[in-house]
Structure formats: structure tokens, C-alpha cells
Amino acid sequence: MTTPPKKTQEPLITSITDLPTASAKWITLQKISYLDQTGAPRTWEVASRKTRARSAGVDAVAMGNVLLHPTRPAATVLVIQYRPPLDAYTVEWPAGLIDEGETAEEAAVREFREEIGWECEVVGVSPVQAADPGLSSANMKLVMVEVRLGEGEEEGVLPVQRLEDGEHIQRVVVPLGELYQRLVEYSQKERMVVAAKLFHFAAGMEFARTKGKEYGI
Amino acid sequence: MTTPPKKTQEPLITSITDLPTASAKWITLQKISYLDQTGAPRTWEVASRKTRARSAGVDAVAMGNVLLHPTRPAATVLVIQYRPPLDAYTVEWPAGLIDEGETAEEAAVREFREEIGWECEVVGVSPVQAADPGLSSANMKLVMVEVRLGEGEEEGVLPVQRLEDGEHIQRVVVPLGELYQRLVEYSQKERMVVAAKLFHFAAGMEFARTKGKEYGI
Description:
The structure is a homodimer.
Chain A: E1 12-18, E2 27-35, E3 41-49, E4 60-68, E5 75-83, E6 88-92, E7 95-97, H1 104-115, E8 121-125, E9 129-130, E10 139-148, E11 170-175, H2 179-187, E12 192-195, H3 196-215
Parallel strand pairs in A: 4-10, 6-12
Antiparallel strand pairs in A: 2-3, 4-7, 5-6, 5-11, 8-10, 9-10
Domain Nudix hydrolase (chains A, B): 58-196
Organism (chains A, B): Parachaetomium inaequale
Protein name (chains A, B): NUDIX hydrolase domain-like protein
């Protein structure tokens, strides 16, 4: 006997209600009062995560990943998932929140294993970056990782994920040389949107590829 | 008689208080109830901007800009400003919210004129991107713009800004070939943080420059 497959349907929003700040569990709204450069009193409204691990001092990691195969072109694995804030499927690099006691590198390896299923090697860690500094205090690090596949391991055949209950994450493998064009194509599909960080990385690659010689990059 | 210069001091946060959702003017907290892919009821907490222009359907634009000078290397202008959500100075590309009735292109030209002081030409507009899709519904477009400087115009001599009251924005010009390294250096300074979108664009450029040949980019 096998477990019957779970039914799959389009996610459907049933209600959107104002959330009192005191009732919010994951995020909060705060008002910052400050003196600006001229000494004038000003205020700013900010959304913050309530989950930042004190050990790392950083909310989240995203895994810029390179899949290396002996005979296939270098590729990267993206995740596509329904994101209620946008009522759309987003295309992103795998990412996740850093747990208490973890370093960014440890969180990257753990989250990559959970979302993608492969063991990866960390090859670089960025400085702390401000996720959306006009709106929120959220911050993150970009951790570059590599997965070295064996001759028999095909990039199209993905390993088993270790997802938490309620996570529905589709994985797609894209050759790095096609990344920018594929993101543009995803953006044209209905109910799909590419995350800004991934799009900017790919746009930077494309910019260097097409304008690098002219602009001395 | 001249107006006495405004005194300059380090911005100072005087209080941070919980902001009731009903009192917030710029952003809001909402609870989304939805049915997931298996039909299971779930909830998600989201921060949203209250200012999205219905005409564009997009919150904001960032201006990826190229300064072209007859004899100097291609460069880009960055803005450094105090961001209360992070209690730090952020390094970003110029950016701003789209006003009602404006297109993304119009907002880009207007904001670039206000923050930087130069007239720019739009050379490309990205698809809509999700600013921080796990946390907020905020979205944006990356508008690539060019400024063609004359032989006599030096990039180091910046034109007059047209800032709104309370805006204190420092501009720095960086050759495109040095952008990534300069962002890494800014990240190492005290009380400074680079915005994730700009950092990712520069990291993508650097990735293509250093790994492009090896990875077929």
C-alpha cells in the first residue's frame, strides 16, 4: 500500500484582514523617532521581523548556487513557490531564516539540503545586505555554494526534498548562460514574479556579458 | 547675506515604539488566510505599502545608471543616506516611489533629476520584481538609464540636487569596473550597509567577470 498523493490545486486567498501589531507573531510595525542631520525631529515607520537570531545578527541567507557536472554546462537551481504576500508564484534562489545558534554558512547548508536535497559546499559569503531598506529592517547574506555532481548524476533528476509541513517548493535547473533570459520569460507568465535579488544578480551578469568590454568591467 | 548652513550631526534615534496598525500612515500589517496546494487552510503575515499608485501597479523604481564621459571610464552614481529602519547609512542606487499617474519610466527620470540633479535617458526597463517576497508585497522595476556627459563635465562635479525637505542624500561616483570592490569596502565601514539589490547586481557582474568563461556565461 502506498500513501495516496495529496491533491494539488491553485492556492486561493480566502480573506485579507488588518492585523493588529500586538497580534502579529512573525513581523511587527514600529515607529522610529529620530533627530536628523540638522537636529530636526522626524519619524519613520518600519516593518521588522521578530525572529532574528541574536547569534548571527542577520535574518536570512540566500544561496547563490552553481551546479557543476563533468560534461554538462554549469547550472543553477531555482525554487518556485506560492507567496501569499504577492498572491503569485515567485522565482527565487533557495533561501531561509537563520536559526538561533547558527552561522550564515551553517544555515545555508541546512536550508539548501532541506529545500533542494543536495549537500553543497560554501565557496563565499557576502557582507550583510539590507533587504529593502526604505521599508524594513530585514537583512541577509548571499552565500555562494557549489554542488559537484558525479558523471551519473543528472541535474534534471533532483534528489528528495526535506520540506517542512506546508512547504510546496518546485525546483528548476537552469544553465547559468541562460539564466537572465529564463527569468525574463518567467516574468511574462501569468501569476509569476521573479524576486528582486535574483533578478538583479542575473541582470548584473547580463550587463557584464553584453557591456563589459565597452565599459571596462 | 547668505543663509547660514544647516548644522550637520549624526542622526540619533530617540525612541522606538510599537505602532498600532490603525495608526500607520505609510505601511500596514495584514493577515492573509488562504488555502494551499493541498486545500489546507493557512495564514501568512504580510507588511504592505499603503502608497502604491494604481496607475502603475508597482511601488517603486530603482535607477541602474551609467555615466558616459568622452574620456573617462564608464561610471555609476550611488546614493548614501541614513535609513532609520537600519540605524545605518545605506549605499543604494537612486530609487523612489512611483506617483499616481506616472509610468515607471517617468518616475525614474523624475527621481533621478531630484536625487542626482542630472537629466537621464531610459535605455531599459525590467519586468516587475518582488522586493522581499517572504515579508512584504512590495514590488519594483529596475530602470536602466544613461547620462551622457560632455567633455567639460566631470563626473566628480555633481549638479545641484532638488531634494524634498528632510532628505539628506550624499552622491558618490564609482567607475563600473570598481563597483563590486567598492561595495565590499563600504560594507566594512561602521554603520554602513549596502542594499541587497545593488549588491546582487554588482555580485552578478563580478561573477560573470571572474567565472564567465569557465561557466559559459
